[in-house]
Design a protein that fits this description.
- The protein is of the alpha/beta class.
- The chain is built from 15 helices and 12 strands.
- It is globular and about 55 Å long.
Length: about 400
């Protein structure tokens, strides 16, 4: 029995449609893979690997770290913050995170700095967030004021040009003052005279991971000078003469030149990964430790080598005529004047300062996606300079 051709076509179409529906019902679609950022010098983010505490001796929280124990195991260290009265809410957020993840176990003091007196509200609310002691310090006017050797007209014209180039905070006077203060003046404050180590904390940052050892003791026992979490490129337009002035300093002070094989100089001079940055910054890769998080030994900043370096830069005027930040200044300082082995990546400390993260793969971390570098736009991924650090120095 034969069916007319039109009926055969309709029947075939129905069979094909039935097969398609069966396929759609029973076929399990493959998940769409998220794009993975692949770096030239590392196949994947090291924070995707299981993260452990640093090796070696670690001091654990114990009864002798109680806040009221004058003979505790705490060493001469402090948590340090430069903060305005108006930033109280953001400061409280940061304190709560760090107290929850670390300091409620060790009770290191908080030291707050401001160029204006702290209000009673600021003191009351911050001291209520910790069992540790809190200290509220006023920055001396001579440490905050624009130096007398800075030409005001040139400064204002330079600030205008920075703003026109889209350099963030380039025309904000207090930002220039802050960068200079953190670069070479904060450790001279009388309140820190007998303090050696500090952990810098800013308002509106987040800490995600439980840290169960004394980080200051770790720095001391393992001969570390500087600790970081995030490693970035800077805007080369903001620091065009920083590296040339650094080379002038090294030429004028041969006594401070270290064996380059022991330092992080290749990381500072790399021109392969972002050659445009190196060119615009006149020989500097612009790689730097993002200093809104830093755990460091102030004895290094107080050393003659670094003091000579800061004083040279200060007289050159780039803190005001350009936008030299404390991050590149600190990074070049430790990168050239200290052994690279004494710089430590705190990969186990989960941290965020918008828009960047350090997110370890650890059960001790909550609220931070392992391996996340940024939750911002895709172009931000190229700002990560860790691949160069791992290439030239390693992951220690």
């Amino acid at each position: 029995m034969f069916f007319p051709k039109p009926m055969r076509v309709v029947a075939l179409a129905c069979v094909l449609l039935l097969l398609f529906l069966i396929f759609e019902i029973f076929h399990k679609p493959q998940p769409i893979k998220e794009p993975r950022i692949v770096y030239p010098d590392m196949t994947e983010d090291p924070n995707l690997e299981e993260t452990q505490e640093p090796s070696g001796k670690l001091w654990r929280a114990a009864d002798d770290y109680a806040a009221d124990n004058s003979k505790s195991s705490r060493i001469n260290a402090t948590i340090l913050s430069l903060v305005r009265n108006s930033e109280i809410d953001g400061m409280i957020q940061s304190m709560r995170d760090l107290e929850r993840t670390w300091n409620h176990k060790f009770n290191y003091p908080w030291t707050f700095f401001n160029d204006e007196p702290f209000t009673a509200e600021f003191k009351e609310r911050t001291s209520a967030e910790t069992n540790a002691s809190c200290h509220y310090e006023l920055i001396p006017k001579e440490h905050w004021a624009v130096p007398a050797w800075i030409n005001d007209d040139l400064f204002r014209e330079s600030a205008k040009m920075l703003a026109e180039q889209g350099i963030q905070y380039g025309d904000v006077v207090s930002y220039h003052q802050m960068c200079r203060w953190y670069s070479g003046l904060f450790y001279r404050h009388p309140a820190l005279q007998h303090t050696r180590y500090y952990w810098r904390v800013e308002p509106k940052v987040h800490f995600f991971c439980d840290v169960d050892y004394d980080v200051f003791r770790y720095m001391h026992d393992h001969n570390k000078t500087y600790g970081f979490t995030i490693n970035l490129y800077d805007a080369p337009q903001s620091i065009p003469t920083l590296w040339p002035e650094t080379l002038k300093f090294l030429e004028a002070h041969p006594e401070h030149n270290k064996d380059e094989t022991l330092t992080a100089r290749p990381w500072l001079e790399d021109k392969e990964r972002r050659p445009g940055h190196n060119q615009k910054a006149n020989g500097y890769s612009t790689c730097h430790f993002w200093s809104n998080f830093e755990i460091a030994d102030m004895e290094f900043w107080r050393s003659k080598a670094y003091e000579d370096y800061f004083n040279h830069l200060d007289r050159a005027g780039g803190f005001f005529y350009e936008r030299w930040g404390d991050a590149p200044v600190h990074s070049i300082g430790v990168g050239l004047l200290e052994d690279a082995s004494r710089i430590h990546w705190f990969r186990d400390i989960g941290y965020q300062h918008i828009p960047y993260f350090n997110c370890p793969n650890s059960p001790k971390c909550q609220g931070c996606k392992k391996g996340l570098f940024t939750d911002g736009d895709d172009f931000l991924f190229k700002e990560d300079c860790r691949p160069n650090w791992f290439k030239y120095v390693g992951m220690g």
